[in-house]
Every structure is written in C-alpha cells, then in structure tokens.
From TrEMBL:
Signal peptide: 1-18
Keyword Signal: yes
Protein name in the entry: Uncharacterized protein
Listed Low complexity bias regions: 44-70
Source organism (scientific name): Malassezia brasiliensis
Entry keywords, A to Z: Signal
Domain of life of the native organism: Eukaryota
Residue numbers spanned by region Disordered: 40-105, 354-395
Length: 420
C-alpha cells in the first residue's frame, strides 16, 4: 500500500517536475548517487579506451570546441548497451503519429503529427509551434514535428530556414545542433524558446503524443528518452540510443535544467553556416561537474514545502544567489567529421508560416542563439554568468510563474517520498 503510494507520488512528482523544468534532487543525495554509480570521472591518463578521443584535433572540434577545459577526462560510462532498460520505447505511439517513420509522406503544413526522427545531417526533425501566434513556452504540450524532408506525415522545414546543422553520433546518443531562422517554422522573433521531452505534465510527453526515432543503428527504432531545446534561432535535440549503469538514458537525456540552454545541456559544435556529420565521445550528463576528482551537480534554484509524517518542512534546491553555469563540463571530442555545403530538400512550393516581425509578447532579445554563439568563443570560464537566479541563457524558457505552485507541490511530494 505504502509502496504504491510512494510510487504514484514519485511518478506524479517526476512528471510535474519534468514539465516545469525543475531539478528534483538534493545535491548531496545526487552526488552520492552519481558517486555510487561511478560517474565520478577517473583522472585516468587520456590515452585510454575511447577510440575517438585521440582524434580531438579534427578540424571541427578545434574550430569550435573551445568551451570547457580541454584537460577534462572523457566521461567514462562503461559499456553502452542498446538494450539497456528504458532505452527503447515500450509505450504506445502518439495518436496523431504514423505507425512507423517513413520518407516522402504528403506535405501538409497544418499537420499535427508528432513523430520526430534524427537520422542524418539532412534528415532530422524538431518540435515547434503550430503557428507564430504564441511563444513556444505557451504551447509546448501542443508542438508538432517539423522535418527537413517530407517524412512521418509531419510538416516540412522550408529550404533556407536552417543555416547550420551538426549531426553527431556517440555511443550513448545521437544529437543534432542547428541554427537558423525558425520564424519560418512558427516561432516568434526573439522567442528564447523552451524544452520538449517525453514526460510533461501528463506523462504522455511534451508535446503530448510526441515520439522519436533514429535509424543510426541501421534500422528505425523508437526511443524512450530524448530532449529538444529550441527557440527562434537555435535548436538542439538529443535522443539516447543506449545506456549503462553509469549512464542510464534518463540521466544522459536529463532535460530539467532549462535555464542553461543548448550549449550547456548538449555541448558540441554550434558554429553557424556549417553542415557536418561527426562521431563523438558522449558528453557528461547535463548538470554534472567534476573537479579535482569530486563530482557535483548543478540544480536550478527552487524552494518549497513537503510533509514528513504530517510535519510540514521546507526545502531549498540550490541557492538564490547561485550562478547558473555558462559552460558545459566539457565539450566532447569529435572525429570522422564530414562536411557538406548545405542541406536542402529542393521543394519549392512550401509556404512558410507567416514570419511575423510584428509578433507581440516576445522580448526581442535573442539570448538563445547569442548565448550559444558567444560561449563558443570563450574558453573554459564557468563562472562568468549572471548572478540572478531568474536569468536564462540560451534556447530555453524560464519556469513560468504560473507553474511555480504545481512545481513546488510536486517537489514536496517527491522529497517527502524520498525521505520516508
Ligand atoms: C511515445 O511516447 C510516450 C511518452 O513519452 C512513451 O511512453 C511511449 O513509450 C512512446 N512510444 C513510442 C512507440 O515511441
Ligand atoms: C493536414 O493535417 C490536418 C491536421 O491533422 C488535417 O486536418 C488536414 O486534413 C490535413 N490535410 C490534408 C490535405 O491531408
Ligand atoms: C536512415 O534513413 C535514411 C533515409 O531513409 C537513409 O538514407 C539512410 O541510409 C538510413 N541510415 C541507415 C544507417 O540505415
């Protein structure tokens, strides 16, 4: 009985928190867990196992991977297993999705299909708004798939929208990092965007019915854990395709740090006007920082109450004056990079959704893209961020005031259940 209650409470808390983008773990507890699972980076000599790390001097990584310190050892995650529990999807596909991903489906720019595929530098999708009447943060649960090719019954991203795309395959995930004018796919100008993931308030995904596939293993596979951060000028999308005890898919695709933006959550090459495909090492899980042999984790600031055997207690995650990290732990080494001059589907007749310069309700400050671009030029400085806990720095939305009560309640339930 109690076990069931705790389970339900956990599920509720996780889904509500996932939706609100708040980190749910106490740092001590989290550090211990990561410690136990061996996430602590070994200060091993870097000439070890990873086959791609020796190619760190490939042109693409040296061109852009200047964030994070170069002397950080690569993340040691054990053996990446494509059949690790929680990697492949087991639940039902979304109601508005085709049963299987496929190319050359009819073009329908009012489609509400929500099946996103990440297959290659010129065959990928992002979630995005239905139209540009609202910011992404207001419509996350209703976003739809926009794809570079006509596929999955989804909407097609018109040629000329994407100005850079970097496709990276690692042992634990595939990732696309893109730049462009996403006002052509429903974003308002200056929209710093938001974060899509498979959990959301209902547990059915954000968007509800959002699902993902990749065929990098040689066949189309539906995966369970993913994260997609996108705003009007930048997008990043990671699908976890394998796992290990050190890097379960929920950890490697941990998507709740939504103040941090693409560059931090999904480190890699965000250089504009460049289209490339690379192999890469897997990045440290989002928010995990290793220094002098000890592991710490960043968590967004939040306070609230929880009930311990009928007693009301308060908790604080993080500190109100904390600095949100502005660089990732490290930028993974990449190798085997192949560039193409551009990507295009050649379809002339796609009519973009009207790209409004008169959009209201958006700040006009394009922190998302700017943050990614400028941090790629700074080297290894993880302490130069704003000291305000309400600042955001990239491709992402804030925790909106309306969400706070739900989030606090959810955190309270979760913390309660952890302690009980
Ligand atoms: C679709 O997404 C839901 C919500 O994240 C998930 O539970 C389910 O396993 C996914 N199904 C497929 C086929 O990907
Ligand atoms: C396009 O998708 C919308 C939403 O699913 C649907 O109502 C409409 O009938 C579709 N149009 C065509 C031509 O299939
Ligand atoms: C993935 O799908 C694309 C398009 O359908 C195809 O061109 C490519 O060869 C596939 N990749 C693999 C590894 O099967």
């Amino acid at each position: 009985m109690i076990a069931i209650y705790r389970f339900l409470a956990l599920m509720f808390a996780f889904s509500a928190l996932a939706n609100c983008g708040v980190v749910y773990r106490g740092s001590k507890w989290e550090a211990d867990v990561f410690e136990r699972r061996g996430l602590r980076a070994r200060q091993a000599s870097s000439s070890s196992s990873s086959s791609s790390s020796s190619s760190a001097s490939s042109s693409s990584s040296s061109a852009s991977s200047s964030s994070g310190s170069s002397d950080v050892p690569a993340f040691q995650y054990g053996t990446a297993d494509p059949n690790y529990p929680g990697v492949q999807a087991t639940g039902p596909n979304g109601d508005t999705n085709p049963d299987e991903p496929s190319l050359n489906t009819p073009i329908n720019q009012t489609s509400v299909a929500r099946l996103a595929s990440l297959n290659s530098v010129d065959d990928w999708c992002t979630f995005g708004p239905l139209d540009n009447t609202q910011t992404l943060g207001d419509v996350e649960d209703r976003t739809v798939a926009w794809c570079t090719k006509p596929r999955n019954n989804a909407r097609v991203i018109p040629d000329g929208t994407v100005t850079a795309a970097h496709f990276v395959k690692t042992p634990l995930y595939v990732q696309v990092m893109a730049r462009g004018d996403f006002t052509k796919i429903g974003f308002q100008e200056g929209d710093t965007g938001g974060e899509l993931d498979p959990h959301g308030a209902t547990g059915k995904g954000n968007p509800v019915g959002g699902n993902v596939t990749s065929n990098v293993t040689g066949k189309d596979v539906f995966y369970e854990e993913w994260m997609n951060y996108v705003g009007s000028t930048i997008m990043c999308f990671r699908i976890c395709i394998a796992g290990s005890d050190e890097a379960p898919p929920k950890t490697e695709c941990q998507h709740t740090l939504d103040e941090m933006g693409c560059w931090n959550i999904m480190p890699g090459n965000y250089e504009d006007n460049m289209f490339e495909t690379c192999d890469a090492d897997a990045a440290y899980p989002p928010g995990i920082y290793v220094s002098d042999g000890s592991t710490s984790s960043f968590q967004q600031y939040a306070t609230g109450i929880w009930t311990d055997n009928g007693q009301i207690k308060t908790y604080t995650n993080g500190v109100s004056t904390q600095t949100t990290p502005t660089t990732a732990m490290s930028t993974p080494s990449s190798s085997n990079c192949q560039t193409v001059s551009t990507i295009a589907n050649g379809i002339k007749s796609i009519i973009p959704t009207s790209s409004s310069s008169s959009a209201s309700g958006s700040s006009g400050s394009s922190k998302g893209g700017a943050a990614a671009a400028s941090s790629s030029g700074s080297s290894g400085d993880s302490s130069s961020g704003s000291s305000s806990d309400s600042s955001h720095n990239g491709g992402v939305a804030s925790v909106r005031p309306a969400m706070v009560p739900a989030m606090v309640a959810a955190a309270a339930v979760l913390l309660g259940s952890l302690v009980l």
